[in-house]
TrEMBL record:
Keywords: Cytoplasm, Endonuclease, Exonuclease, Exosome, Hydrolase, Nuclease, Nucleus, RNA-binding, rRNA processing. Its cofactor is Mg(2+). It comes from Saccharomycopsis crataegensis. This is Ribosomal RNA-processing protein 44. Belongs to the RNR ribonuclease family. One of its GO terms (biological process) is rRNA catabolic process.
Length: 984
């Protein structure tokens, strides 16, 4: 029970209201009084106001608030010059429209709305706060909850939602009266328009004399409204789709039923993973089952998107099955669907899908005793959507030729670049104009009566296959932040800019006095060719007793990136730098990465150094950590360092130190391998770009030299040493990285392939057993087979992840791939935020400086780790997508090349071939291989038999070496350039 006590004026001029709550615990009553203070000096932030600038007081830093609302806002015939007040749902559903540069300037955001948005969607809240900081958009937050003139108490029996609606209306009314009374007489009348899609709320506003309109009506009445209507999301009173002839998906269970089912073990939750080869099949891993649950068919997938957090219900054992062995693509299954309402009976389940599901059911009944049978389930609820901006292109088939020049709004389908996602239906007046363009769309909803999700157009990126459009598309697809750094971020950099230098005297600042002067050490860096963001360097020196002093020196980024600054917040948000073929998307501004922090040769630089004493067998005798100053003697590429080491005529101390580092690194690597470290592989290639035209030239497989391993071993050793130190100092919040052991089920199919095709097997008893068994899997007739197997084994592994040490017990810290009990990332703070945190924690651990609260709080550290895990994964995907795009461009000029390939997957209607030279995988469908009617798929032996185009009988199997002809084509569905392979 709660009671609101009327307001009373305090001597200080503030007003206070009190809420009295009566709480009952164990039969006893407790009275709780909550006080809410109100002010009379909260400004309106309008430049047209004559009163607020006179009453407002400066803050603790003697700063006055910025009056951002224009005294000459946008004019519309219906509204005149006006400011806009937004409802919470408008912000939540139309945030990308609010961000549009051609709409929504001079917007008042009530504190009530801001807090509601924060509670319902923190990502959208972050975007709204960014708008409020933008000088161009002029969004002003008005603290109506603390203003005497606008605060409203909750009435008896009034819901919180109704109270908040009333508070927003009160805010509108206050602004209109305030501006009428205090507007500068030289300024034209300014009205206040309340934009809200809740008709009841609008009617209440109109009854109070407030100008109110729905989003679609407001946009329609703007001077550029016709151009903006495509951006309006599908919501109440907005453009809508009818589904009179469409059947219905199953309804989701109620929240209470979902929570109860999860609690009592009848329902399970996890993340849905849709197959990239079969859009009708998804899997979800849950702890209760060794094998993933299979979700088969559109009805059971029940409107889920790849990556959604879902709740599933188990199907009867009679419906359990093996994973599908058929390639199923949406464009083939639903080619005749029409986007326009009422044009065709867009049933949820098409005849082709029914046929597919019938075949799968028949297969399941004949495989009841198979060891590959997996549980099946259906989705009964979605707890968290993975929706984001999606990139695709309008399907030509969904836009009639006779309507392409019309400006009338029409429905059309957008096919997304990600094949695991469904096409999206949007309504637009620009369908003809947008054909052939990469466009960005947002999803608004997926009603149970609609076969497809519904969304709206956001923006065009440019022509398909143009470098700019394709690059921006892959960055958006992988949620990479690529906008320029803001003014506030850049203001955190040293004012001297490129002229900044390490102080020459070390007896000034107390922190500089704590630094070790290592400028006499023969330090050098070894990096890829052309590297400018050099964040690591090394040195080695033999000691009088015959042992070795070895140092790893890491760029001291935290000297410039201080906690709780805009620069730190931006680095934490971006999480990592992203490396594309033709560019680098920096985590930190270029001035830091390529200049002030980069350990360039011949100049003094701040560093964080790990210094070991090692014996001649590379055993650690002693470890020390120091903030330091170094002066690198040389910046080598891997190739140049290797040449110098191999050149016997080079006998200078720097070269001798490099030779010692190489010798010690070989012993360190052997120690790791003896402990069970894995030597895995991935098909990594390098695209050479023309230095003048920036066109892709040729592709080659990356060659690894001994110097690559030299650097890697000492970086690994530094990371392990730092991990131990920060864990000892901060056992609950140390920033660590773990790599879990893979479950045996991950390797079941690969092991079965090896047993059947090669009479080999992989052991999973330990990482050492796995490493040894991989070494034994050698085919004397095919030198590449072992590399191929390591590539396939890598895909069966678990993903490594960052975590604060308090999340797991020590035994779970283990990095399986490196065979290390504890590990972190410390050696690349220019390009990884994890390393920035590790630097701060290490500095505190050695007593150099105190540690910020955000890195001592377990909950905050969990949020940091969650973000950087996502950013790290997305950066990897974006880098691979960039290589894939440029390899496609190279192949355009090398059509009909014949290359060696290896079959890595066999389906009942096609095969997947890996081409090592280009690092690409290509799908060859059965109709291209030969006669589909003659084909026989042997699931047990992973082989496919068929008659080829000449009528000759052929059988092909997994691991088989084949020659393929490569053509570069545009995927007819996604318009992505891909390799089309043909068996030779």
């Amino acid at each position: 029970m709660s009671t609101v006590i009327p307001k009373k004026r305090l001597a200080s001029g503030l007003t206070v209201t009190q809420k009295v709550f009566v709480r009952s615990r164990n039969g006893g009553a407790t009275k709780v009084v909550s006080e809410h203070y109100l002010r009379d000096d909260i400004p309106c932030y309008s430049k047209a106001c004559t009163r607020c600038p006179e009453i407002v007081k400066p803050d603790a830093n003697n700063q006055y608030p910025n009056f951002v609302l224009s005294d000459s806002p946008v004019y519309a015939e219906k509204y005149g010059h006006h400011y806009v007040v937004l409802d919470t749902n408008i912000v939540l559903l139309a945030i990308d429209l609010l961000e549009n540069k051609d709409a929504f300037c001079d917007v008042i955001v009530p504190q009530t709305v801001l807090e509601e948005v924060r509670n319902r969607s923190f990502p959208i809240y972050t975007r709204l706060r960014a708008l409020c900081k933008s000088d161009e958009k002029r969004f002003a937050v008005f603290h109506n909850e603390f203003s005497e003139d606008t605060f409203v108490s909750r009435l008896l029996n009034e819901t919180i939602n109704d109270r908040n609606d009333r508070a927003i209306r009160r805010c509108c009314d206050y602004f209109q009266k305030h501006l009428n009374q205090h507007r500068d007489k030289k300024v034209k009348q300014i009205n206040v328009v309340f934009v809200c899609n809740d008709k009841k709320n609008r009617d209440a506003a109109a009854g109070a004399g407030i100008m109110a309109d729905s989003l679609v009506d407001y946009v329609t009445n703007l001077p550029n409204g016709e151009d903006l209507l495509d951006f309006v999301p599908n919501m109440e009173d907005g453009p809508s789709f009818s589904h009179k002839k469409e059947t219905k998906f199953p309804d989701y269970y109620t929240t209470a039923r979902l929570m109860g089912g999860i609690k009592n073990g009848t329902l399970y939750q996890g993340s849905i993973n849709i197959s990239s080869y079969n859009f009708l099949e998804g899997t979800i891993s849950v702890p209760s089952f060794k094998k993933p649950l299979i979700i088969m068919g559109r009805e059971n997938l029940n409107r889920s998107f790849n990556g959604d957090q879902v709740v599933v219900e188990l199907l009867p054992k009679s419906k359990w099955k093996t994973p599908s062995n058929e390639i199923v693509e949406e464009e083939n299954m639903d080619a005749n669907d029409n986007a326009e309402d009422g044009d065709s009976p867009n049933e949820i389940i098409s005849d082709k899908e029914r046929l597919f599901l019938l075949k799968e059911a028949q297969k399941a009944s004949s495989e009841e005793s198979s060891t590959r049978i997996q549980p099946t389930a259906k989705i009964v609820g979605i707890t968290k959507r993975s929706w984001r901006f999606y990139v695709g292109q309008i399907s030509e088939n969904s836009v009639a030729k006779d309507s392409r020049t019309s400006n009338a709004a029409r429905n059309c389908f957008v096919i997304l670049m990600d094949r695991s996602l469904p096409k999206i239906r949007i309504r637009t007046r620009k369908a003809g104009e947008l054909l052939g363009q990469r466009i960005v769309v947002a999803v608004d909803s997926w009603p149970s009566t609609s076969k497809y999700p519904e969304g709206h157009f956001v923006k065009s990126l440019g022509a398909i296959e143009s470098v700019q459009a394709e690059t921006e598309a892959l960055l958006l697809e992988h949620s990479v932040e690529y906008k320029p750094f803001s003014k506030k971020v850049l203001e955190c950099l040293p004012k001297e800019g490129h002229d900044w230098k390490v102080p020459t005297k070390l007896d000034g600042d107390e922190f500089i006095k704590k630094r070790k002067d290592f400028r006499d050490k023969l330090v050098c860096s070894i990096d890829p060719p052309g590297c400018v963001d050099i964040d690591d360097a090394l040195h080695a020196k033999q000691l009088p007793d015959g042992n070795w002093e070895v140092g790893v020196h890491i760029a001291d980024v935290t000297n410039f990136v201080k906690p709780n600054t805009p620069l730190d917040a931006e680095g934490a948000y971006r999480g990592t730098s992203v490396y594309l073929v033709d560019k680098r998307i920096d985590m930190l501004p270029e001035l830091l990465g390529t200049d002030l922090c980069s350990l360039k040769p011949y100049v003094d630089r701040f560093a964080f150094s790990v210094i070991w004493t090692l014996d001649n067998d590379a055993n650690i005798i002693d470890t020390n950590f120091h903030k330091s100053i170094i002066r690198s003697r040389e910046a080598f590429s891997y190739e140049r360092a290797q040449l110098r080491i191999d050149d016997a005529s080079q006998q200078d101390d720097l070269t001798k130190g490099m030779r010692a580092l190489l010798d010690l690194s070989i012993k360190l690597k052997q120690q790791r391998l003896d402990a069970g470290a894995l030597n895995l592989a991935s098909p990594e290639v390098k695209v050479h770009m023309d230095s003048e035209t920036a066109d892709p030239g040729e592709v080659e497989i990356k060659k690894l030299l001994a110097t690559n391993s030299l650097v890697e071993e000492f970086m690994l050793l530094a990371n392990i040493s730092v991990a131990k130190k920060i864990y000892d100092a901060f056992p609950q919040t140390a920033m660590l990285r773990r790599h879990a052991a893979p479950p045996a089920t991950n390797f079941e199919v690969l092991n079965e392939m090896l047993r059947v095709r090669k009479n080999m097997s992989i052991s999973l008893d330990s990482s050492k057993a796995l490493a040894d068994s991989l070494d034994r899997c050698v085919d004397p007739q095919d030198p590449y087979f072992n590399t191929l197997l390591r590539i396939m084994a890598t895909r069966c592994m678990m993903a490594a992840e960052y975590f604060p040490s308090g999340m797991f017990s020590y035994g779970e810290f283990r990095h399986y791939g490196l065979a290390s009990e504890i590990y972190t990332h410390f050696t690349s703070p220019i390009r990884r935020y994890c390393d920035v945190v590790a630097h701060r924690q290490l500095a505190a651990a050695i007593g150099y400086e105190s540690l910020d609260f955000s890195h001592r709080d377990k909950d905050k550290m969990e949020l940091i780790c969650k973000n950087i895990n996502k950013r790290h994964r997305n950066a990897q995907f974006a880098g691979r997508a960039s290589i894939e795009y440029y390899v496609g461009q190279v192949m355009k000029n090398n059509n009909n090349d014949t290359q060696e390939g290896y079959i890595i997957k066999v389906f009942s209607n096609g095969i997947v071939v890996l081409v090592p030279k280009f690092g690409i995988e290509g799908l060859i469908k059965l109709e291209v291989l030969g006669d589909a009617n003659s084909a026989k798929f042997d699931d047990e032996n992973f082989s496919l038999s068929f008659k080829d185009q000449n009528g000759d009988a052929k059988t092909i199997s997994v691991f088989e070496h084949v020659n393929v002809q490569i053509k570069s084509v545009l995927d007819p569905a996604t318009s992505k350039r891909k390799a089309q392979l043909v068996l030779v």
